[in-house]
Design a protein that fits this description.
about 0% strand, mainly alpha, single chain
């Protein structure tokens, strides 16, 4: 049960971080004074991603911890 909670919490954390990063990119595109027809999520641009990377890694870490607990538990 704890393993499942870790996995779900990690996925929710990662998803919420991704949604916040997506929203920030869309907001920055909309604030562009020359106009913006569309935007892309550039993983190579560290200007904003540097602030979101710790929370991405935390979400991945929770998922991996839950998967590790799930795979290494002893079966009765």
């Amino acid at each position: 049960m704890k393993a499942t909670l870790l996995i779900v919490a990690g996925l929710l954390h990662f998803g919420a971080t991704f949604a916040a990063w997506y929203w920030l990119n869309a907001f920055a595109c909309g604030m562009n004074t020359t106009g913006c027809n569309g935007f892309s999520l550039n993983w190579g641009d560290w200007e904003a991603l540097q602030f979101f990377m710790p929370t991405f890694l935390l979400g991945i870490g929770l998922v991996l911890a839950g998967a590790w607990r799930l795979l290494t538990r002893s079966r009765p």
